[in-house]
Amino acid sequence: MDWALKSSGATIDTQRTSQTYDCKDSGLCRILRLFWTASPPDTILQPKVFPGNCWAFKGHQGQVVIRLPARVHLTAITVQHITKEASPSGTIISAPKDIAVFGVDADSEEETLLGMFTYNTEKDPIQTFPLKSMLLPRAFSHVKLLVKSNWGNPWYTCIYRVQVHGKMENRKAPTEGQDK
């Protein structure tokens, strides 16, 4: 199951997410103004992936925090970008490269590193990475994706789609006599 789906109740914690890239100060954007519209961060929570339908943040480093619809024991994360062939420019240098994933406890805002990986632009555009949550029998209500670098774009990094995989936490109902 994908826990990072907007239609299932996942949302973006905008207070802890990097600012959306605004290219209106760029000369290239003035020329391409008719084609460029900045997409909001929750674009990554929706399954429609096509060239230009990504969330871009300024520079090569940034983060997004996804509020999950339930507390989840995280097992893997999937990152998707478009292929070079689908890109109008013929390049995908705005794709994320080095990424760290954290489970975030909403109450204490404590972050737990669950994995670090490299999105490889030479491989399949949909890449799934296992997380080391098996070592921690903990469920998280938020996931933080920290992009440490991209494939060479100095102005912005684009994330097209993120999926979060895992199993919902079992909330045991109190047995009779408990909590009284």
Gist of the model:
This protein is mostly beta strands and 180 residues long. It has one helix spanning 27-32, and strands at 11-12, 55-58, 62-80, 98-104, 111-118, 126-130, 140-147, 156-159, 161-168. Helices cover 3% and strands 36% of the residues.
What does this entry look like structurally?
The chain has 180 residues and is mainly β. Helices cover 3% and strands 36% of the residues. It contains one helix and nine strands, in the order βαββββββββ. It has one helix at 27-32; strands spanning 11-12, 55-58, 62-80, 98-104, 111-118, 126-130, 140-147, 156-159, 161-168. Strands 1, 3, 4, 5, 6, 7 and 9 form a seven-stranded antiparallel beta sheet that branches. Strands 2-8 form a two-stranded antiparallel sheet. The radius of gyration is 18 Å and the shape is globular. It starts with 10 loop residues before the first strand and ends in a 12-residue tail after the last strand. Residues 30-34 have low confidence and may be disordered.
